[in-house]
Amino acid sequence: MSDSINLLKEYELKRDVSKLYLKSTKNIFDNIKRLEDDMHSILINASNDSFIYNNERIDYDYIDKLKNDYSDVYSNIAPLITNDLERIENLKHSFKRDIYLIFLESFYDYSHFKNLFEKDPFIKEYRDWANNSTKIAPNVNNGSFYARLAGLTASSPLYPKTQSEKIENTLPDLLSKNGYNTIALEEALNTYNLKTFYPSIGFSSQIFGLGTTNINTYLVTNIQNLKTPIFTAGFTILGHTDSHLDNNLNIAENNKKFLNYFEGNDKLHIMETLDNSAMTAIEIIKIRDTILKHSPNAIIMFKHDHLYPYLKAIIQRSSIDEKTKTNFLNDYKPSPILIWDGTNGAYKTDENFTPENIPLFIAVNLNIDYTNSIISLLYKEEIENTISTYNRFYYTSNNMPIDNNEVSNLIIFKYENAQRILSQDIFQGKKYYYDLINISNK
């Protein structure tokens, strides 16, 4: 276990998190740097025979010391220093942004087949956002739970034991410790033992059974009364097998040629999932706009959980041309992760962004201390043009899977194995992680 922690910490220490910065985050850090450079210059110029400032960067503790030990010097520069310090504090306070992370049941926007539609079922506002977003891996098997697990704790798939105590250093736990109101909103009833799971990873409240498409309804009614800053994790239900809402999209009537690629029950199922996803796309825009109306600077993320369970088999049996089929069937990240950066609009992540990297992405953009946390140690690194996600390995150069016979010889295999051991210790084991991290911090 200690070897695994040491390996993961080695990568944490050399990681460049600036690649995770939203445009707004980069602007804040750039402005802070400009003000710190200004203060640094003031302190350098104030140096004299009795006072010499030769620090390479601003030392805030030294500024406090300056007030007592060099009051004559400080009194001359205080107006300028005080002004910059106040502006820096205001900038740091602006990191405290509301966060909304919404998982989408069985959502897929059929981008691989867009050219086959006579009339695109997906609204333009959604397509514009999706086209300016990075595609990301779907989740497999118990994908609805694993989507939550990866997006909230950074763990690859496993099923946790019931916890008797709260797990430290998950995303909700870190946010709670930094003053966030953490709430889970579920359109469905309790599944996967979520009523126990959510509190165990740090959520302060949870609501189940909101009903289909009712996350937006809940927010419209309650958002003004929710304590801020807030971190909200939501999960939709439209898209689940046999779910449906009446609508006037007329997808079948508008896309008869596309539906003719399918026969029998396949045609009924493709119509169901296509209709549900098109309706979900409308809900995505509604939820975003509801949030922005109340919190214009919010960070908003939408992530699908997995593909419709029978979709690949349905596409395989269809009469769609083989090239289009193959492009879809071989694509391990077919759907976009949608990110809205407050007033800056749509944001596109790095191409090799994985579901397990969502928690650290959020923490970095809120400027909270994530050092040694599980969301940092479980972060998926790109190592020598390879990456892992959901216990599978891929070449980043062409997004192709790595043959099992090759994997064991790669450095990323050791990294992934260390993360698997850590995940098992935290969620299924005795949590030796806590002691090892405490030791390393002494």
Features:
442 residues; alpha/beta; eight-stranded mixed beta sheet; two-stranded antiparallel ribbon; 47% helix; globular
Structure description:
- Helices cover 47% and strands 11% of the residues.
- The chain contains 19 helices and 10 strands.
- The protein is globular.
- The model has no long low-confidence stretch (mean pLDDT 94).
What structural category do the secondary elements indicate? Answer: alpha/beta
Q: State the shape.
A: globular
Q: How many strands appear in the DSSP assignment?
A: 10
β-sheet strand percentage: 5-15%
Radius of gyration: 25 Å
Order of helices and strands: HHHHEHEHHEHEHEHHHEHHEEHHEEHHH
How would the blueprint of this fold be written?
Layout: H1 2-13, H2 23-45, H3 60-69, H4 71-93, E1 99-104, H5 124-131, E2 134-136, H6 143-153, H7 171-177, E3 181-186, H8 194-200, E4 205-207, H9 214-222, E5 230-235, H10 251-254, H11 256-259, H12 264-294, E6 299-304, H13 311-317, H14 322-329, E7 335-341, E8 346-347, H15 358-365, H16 374-377, E9 386-389, E10 392-395, H17 404-407, H18 411-427, H19 432-441
Parallel strand pairs: 1-5, 1-6, 3-4, 3-5
Antiparallel strand pairs: 2-7, 6-7, 7-8, 9-10
Helix pairs in contact: 1-18, 2-4, 3-4, 9-12
